[in-house]
Amino acid sequence: MDLDVFVTAHRTEWNRLDHLLHRGRHLTGAEADELVVLYQRTATHLSLIRSTTPDPLLTARLTQLAARARATVAGTRKASWRDAARFLTAGFPAAVYRSRHWWAPTAVLSTALAGLLGWWIGAHPEVQAAIAAPEDLRAMTRPGGEYETYYSSHPAASFAAQVWTNNAQAAAMCLVLGAFLCIPVIWILFLNMLNLGIGIGLMSSAGRLDVFLGLVLPHGLLELTAVFVAAGTGLRLGWTVIDPGPHTRRTALAQQGRAALGMAIGLALVLFVSGVIEGFVTPSGLPTWSRITIGIAAELAFLAYVYILGRRAVRAGDTGDLTAIERSAELPTAA
Q1: What is the C-alpha to C-alpha distance for residues 17 and 39, in angstroms, rounded to an integer?
Q2: Mean pLDDT over all residues of the chain?
Q3: Which candidate, 195, 93, 135, 154, places its Cα nearest to that of 278?
């Protein structure tokens, strides 16, 4: 395509669109219709220039012009309580449900890894000796030791807030760092499973695995599920960099990135619930069976939330992304 000829042919339309945009609210009905038509044409022109003969200056001008026109055509929109309700009842569960093929295998493989590491550590005294001195291991695993007092070492409210903050940061790192070809997410997952495996191995070698599971399961089921969802979403984002599918890499990353951002907000709420359980239920004087029952109930409630509301939202067409009017238009690309 001859860029000079193309610019000469369409400069009048761009100038006319710019003129209409400057008039703002003083447009007649016919001029408003004309503005919409010119916006659509300019968006198509921008797509053609990007895909055939990209010129930085012209691309910048048309991008700005199309953005201004779109803002005028679509108008501005403020968030409301209805948006928050829609996010919690449709957007977030739909995003989690759609990514289940990533986080469900992640959960299975990670749990298996933690179990394998726990067995390896518990069955090999030399590995335990490499972790800490024998007296330190006894101090951690004995009745009333560090593994038990950890959950009651601080006031419940401040402990729950600290746990929530730490877990939310770990989940956010999985979501954000997934774009770096998945490698940081795999490392974060490994460190989490290593810590869990060490606890399983040391407490099982001391004959107190039941105590350890009684302390971990009440909050750990929901907490680890949230981490697995974040990790699976991060891995999906990283794979999008490698294989964007039918979309351009930029479009595919934008779509997955927006869903990941919404996922971060939703998972922060899930981790808040697990933090409350860890701060108030885990160290409580309730019987072990009662504390574990609360943890299982919270986990089942979250899975039902995802697989019932999420499946329903997906079938209704919700993807967990922004609605079409809220996101930038995806311009066609030339073949």
Answers
A1: 7
A2: 85
A3: 154
